[in-house]
């Protein structure tokens, strides 16, 4: 059994590393072979992963999990999200109560389940008071359609308002060695409220594996092609971080990805990183991060170096950046 962590006051126990499933069918180029991904999901379960992340907005992804987990659904924790939908190849935000009601029924149907363990608002909808959203979540819990709720990429004020109405189990936001902004305000707040932090893109969308450089390219449909940090210039400028990771990892007889994941696990015991992969080999390798021991001296050395590195370029273009921190 893999090490476990608890999702805030919900009491829900999950594997300390979870699997982000988006890339299996969405956002990273062409959707992967369905049968291969179902096999990978089952392998992840056999290896001890119990926490799986999806969303209504990840076209075809909920259906994939629904099919993969028939017969073992009660042994898993599934997180999904509402509030973003796609129309005419463009994404829109909508968290009106009636829309949430429609979203939950669709997700339950696609996931082939009668209850979603953790239900996130995908991004804060500034047109709908968070108190209204929390009220709907309270109703869904009473109805047995969800066990707990959370927010994604929300700002401190929204987190506090939401938590006062109905305690949050988790906040899901980006956090890694090359995006440390949550350390400034969000992590201390979550710790004080007993809310878990689910860290997506813990490997920097692949950059922190130590295998990318200015020659790296992305296929059509891979959303990294529109991100400022993945231009050839930025990849070249940020190689200093990649080189440090590779060098330090060698001193620990591990690889850059495992070092990046282990570092996150050591930051706070309420942090649950969710990495994405479509490779069984990579899945097994990433889970080895749970065995990597970092001493206080190791962590001090890593953090001192990270403080000296200035990451070039923003993580999102303006239209995506405008959705976060509300």
Gross morphology is globular
Number of helix segments? 12
Global Rg: 19 Å
Helix content: 25-40%
Structural class: alpha/beta
N-to-C SSE series? EEEHEHEEEHEHEHEHEHHHEHHH
Estimate the strand proportion: 15-25%
List keywords for this structure.
12 strands, alpha/beta, 326 residues, 38% helix, eight-stranded parallel beta barrel
Give the topology.
Elements: E1 4-7, E2 12-15, E3 18-20, H1 34-46, E4 51-53, H2 61-68, E5 77-82, E6 84-87, E7 90-93, H3 97-111, E8 116-121, H4 130-142, E9 146-152, H5 156-165, E10 170-174, H6 186-193, E11 196-200, H7 232-237, H8 239-251, H9 256-267, E12 271-276, H10 280-287, H11 296-308, H12 318-321
Parallel strand pairs: 3-4, 3-12, 4-5, 5-8, 8-9, 9-10, 10-11, 11-12
Antiparallel strand pairs: 1-2, 6-7
Helix pairs in contact: 1-2, 2-3, 4-5, 8-9
Would you kindly provide a written description of the structure presented here, covering whatever features stand out?
The radius of gyration is 19 Å and the shape is globular. The protein is built from 12 helices and 12 strands. The strands form 3 sheets. The chain has an 8-stranded parallel β-barrel with strand order 3-4-5-8-9-10-11-12, surrounded by 4 helices. A two-stranded antiparallel ribbon has the order 1-2. α1 crosses α2. It starts with a strand and ends in a 5-residue tail after the last helix. With 326 residues, the chain is of the alpha/beta class. α1 links the parallel β3 and β4.
């Amino acid at each position: 059994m893999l090490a476990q962590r608890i999702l805030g006051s919900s009491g829900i126990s999950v594997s300390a590393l979870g699997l982000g499933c988006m890339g299996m069918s969405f956002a990273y180029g062409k959707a992967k072979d369905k049968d291969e991904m179902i096999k990978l999901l089952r392998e992840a379960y056999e290896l001890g992963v119990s926490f799986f992340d999806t969303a209504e907005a990840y076209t075809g992804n909920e259906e994939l999990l629904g099919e993969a987990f028939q017969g073992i659904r009660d042994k898993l924790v599934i997180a999904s999200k509402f509030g973003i939908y796609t129309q005419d190849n463009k994404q829109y935000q909508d968290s009106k109560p009636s829309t949430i009601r429609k979203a939950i029924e669709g997700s339950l149907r696609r996931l082939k389940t009668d209850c979603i363990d953790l239900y996130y608002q995908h991004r804060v909808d500034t047109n709908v008071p968070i108190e209204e959203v929390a009220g709907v979540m309270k109703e869904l819990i009473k109805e047995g359609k969800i066990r707990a709720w959370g927010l994604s990429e929300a700002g401190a004020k929204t987190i506090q308002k939401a938590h006062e109405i109905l305690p949050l189990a988790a906040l899901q936001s980006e956090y890694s060695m090359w995006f440390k902004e949550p350390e400034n305000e969000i992590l201390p707040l979550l710790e004080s409220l007993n809310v878990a932090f689910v860290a997506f893109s813990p490997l920097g969308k692949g950059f922190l594996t130590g295998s990318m450089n200015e020659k790296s390219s992305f296929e059509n449909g891979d959303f990294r092609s529109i991100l400022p940090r993945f231009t050839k210039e930025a990849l070249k400028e940020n190689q200093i971080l990649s080189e440090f990771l590779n060098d330090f990892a060698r001193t620990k007889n591990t690889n850059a990805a495992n070092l990046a994941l282990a570092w996150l696990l050591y930051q706070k015991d309420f942090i649950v990183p969710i990495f994405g992969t479509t490779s069984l080999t990579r899945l097994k390798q990433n889970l080895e991060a749970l065995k990597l021991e970092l001493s206080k001296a190791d962590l001090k050395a890593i953090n001192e170096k990270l403080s000296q590195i200035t990451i070039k370029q923003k993580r999102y273009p303006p239209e995506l950046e405008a959705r976060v921190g509300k």
